[in-house]
Amino acid sequence: MKIIRKTLFILLIFNLIRIIPGCCDCDGPATFFSFNKTGITNLNNSGSVPVTSPSDTMRAAAVAFEVSLYDSTGYWYYAALPVKTNAGFSRATAMSCDCAYPMQARVHLTNISITTLFPISDQVAAGTEISGLFVASLRGNYAGDGVYITPEMLCSQTENKIYYDGGIESFGLFLKPEVQSPFARFAMRFTLSDGSILTDTTALITIRP
Predict the structure, then answer these.
(1) Cβ-count burial of 53 within 10 angstroms (0-12 exposed, 13-18 middle, 19+ buried)?
(2) Overall number of domains in the chain
(3) pLDDT of residue 166
(4) Which has the higher per-residue pLDDT, 21 or 25?
(5) What span, in angstroms and rounded, lies between the C-alpha atoms of 27 and 141?
(6) Whole-angstrom Cα distance, residue 136 to residue 128?
(7) Range of the domain at 7
(8) Is residue 63 scored above 60 in pLDDT?
(9) 183 in Cβ contact with 205 (< 8 Å)
(10) Which distant-in-sequence residues (6+ apart) come within 8 Å of 74 by Cβ?
(11) What value, to the nearest 5°, has the Cα angle with vertex 134 and ends 130 and 135?
(12) Backbone angles phi, psi at 166, to 5 degrees
C-alpha cells in the first residue's frame, strides 16, 4: 500500500511540474491574422500630449488623427485557437494565464495616401493628395520631441512586426501646415503588401483659430 501511495504521489508531482509551466507558456509561435478593418479617431493635439477626443472641432494648427488597422475577427478568437505550445498544451487551455500571445499580420503596410476633401490653403486645393504634409507617430510615442516619422517610415516598421497588444496597428497622423479653411476632412487609403487596399474617411472637422 505504501509503495502504491508513493507511486501515485510521484506521478502527481510529475504531472504538476508538466502542467504548471505548460498552462502559462506564453512563448508559443506567432498566430497570423489579417488587416481588414480600419478606424479613425480624432486627436486633440492642442496640448502638450495628444489625446483621443470625441470632439469634431480642432485648432487650425493642431489637426491630428489616430488610425487603427485590425482584424474584424478579433484578437480573442485567434488567441483561443488550439495552437500547441512547446509544452504540448493548447493556447485555449492556457487562456487563464492571461498571456499576451504573439501575433503577426499576414501582410504589412506599404503606402498611406491622404487626400484633402476641403482646401487647406490657397496653395492646397480640395482633391489634392497631401500625405507628404503629414507626419506619423506610433501609438505610445505621441509625447516629446523627435518622435515623428514620415508615413513611408511608418509603413516600413510594420513589416514582420510582432504584436502583443491584440493585433492592432495604431498610429497618429499629424498635419504639419495650419488649416486656413473653416472645415477639414480627409480620405485615406492604406495599401497592403498583397496589393489590397483599405479606405476610410475622417469625420468633418470644424476648424477654430
Answers:
(1) middle
(2) 1
(3) 74
(4) 25
(5) 26
(6) 19
(7) 2-208
(8) yes
(9) yes
(10) none
(11) 155
(12) 95, 10
Cell for 18?
508538466
Sign of the torsion angle spanned by Cα atoms 117, 120, 125, 128: negative
Q: CA geometry: angle at 153 spanning 103 and 79, to 5°?
A: 10
CA–CA gap between residue 107 and residue 102 (Å, rounded): 15
Task: State mean pLDDT over 42-56.
Answer: 92
Per-residue pLDDT, averaged over 174-191, amounts to: 98
Four-residue CA torsion sign, 70, 74, 76, 82:
negative
| Closest by CA position to 191, among listed 114, 134, 72, 110 | 110
Q: State the amino acid at position 140 in one-letter form.
A: G
What distance in Å separates the CA atoms of residue 50 and residue 140, rounded to the nearest whole number? 10
Q: If pLDDT is split at 50, 70 and 90, which confidence band does 26 have?
A: low
Pairing of strands 31-33, 103-105: parallel
10: DSSP letter: H
